[in-house]
């Protein structure tokens, strides 16, 4: 007998039935999802607003830096504004770093949001799938029940 055909092999399909029939787990998952989703959405929106402010600040610093550079060139005087220009350039660099951190954080949040949506869709599909099985439990003839299951999910066909 092949290792692949041994009866002790398990798959996720074997465990789906156990997963769908646990109302406590379903209620807990739904509760956690309803608690986390607004927080993730709110955090995502605040990061967007912060990134917009960071971009505006960066543009203003660049404009100010250019203006100071033009003043410095126009005056041709020994005023020591180079140190201030360096400070502005350092501030601009730090803002760029913070912007990159915010972007990566927003990317992580977007992935989490997509995962939440995917998980929700998967759970709905599993619940719909489990309701299909509960509707077929009234069939007394075993052959009719097997046919209904084959129609519902051809991947579970033992002959395939």
Automatic annotation (TrEMBL):
InterPro entries named in the record: Snapin, Snapin/Pallidin/Snn1
CC terms in the record's Gene Ontology section: BLOC-1 complex; BORC complex; synaptic vesicle
Record field: compositional bias (Basic and acidic residues): 140-160
GO biological process, one term: endosome to lysosome transport
Keywords: Coiled coil
A single MF term (Gene Ontology): SNARE binding
Domain of life: Eukaryota
Keyword Coiled coil included in the entry's annotation: yes
Region annotation Disordered: where it falls in the sequence: 134-160
Family, as annotated: Belongs to the SNAPIN family.
PANTHER family tied to this protein: SNARE-ASSOCIATED PROTEIN SNAPIN
Name this protein carries in UniProt: Biogenesis of lysosome-related organelles complex 1 subunit 7
Provenance organism: Habropoda laboriosa
């Amino acid at each position: 007998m092949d290792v692949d055909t041994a009866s002790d092999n398990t798959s996720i399909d074997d465990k789906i039935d156990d997963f769908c029939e646990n109302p406590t787990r379903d209620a807990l998952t739904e509760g956690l999802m309803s608690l986390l989703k607004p927080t993730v959405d709110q955090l995502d929106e605040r990061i967007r607003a912060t990134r917009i402010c960071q971009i505006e600040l960066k543009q203003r610093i660049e404009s100010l830096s250019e203006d100071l550079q033009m003043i410095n060139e126009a005056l041709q005087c020994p005023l020591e504004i180079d140190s201030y220009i360096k400070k502005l350039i350092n501030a601009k660099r730090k803002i760029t770093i913070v912007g990159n951190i915010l972007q990566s954080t927003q990317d992580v949040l977007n992935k989490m949001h997509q995962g939440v949506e995917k998980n929700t869709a998967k759970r709905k599909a599993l619940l719909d799938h489990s309701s299909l099985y509960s509707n077929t439990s009234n069939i007394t003839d075993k052959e009719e029940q097997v046919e209904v299951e084959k129609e519902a999910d051809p991947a579970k066909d033992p002959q395939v």
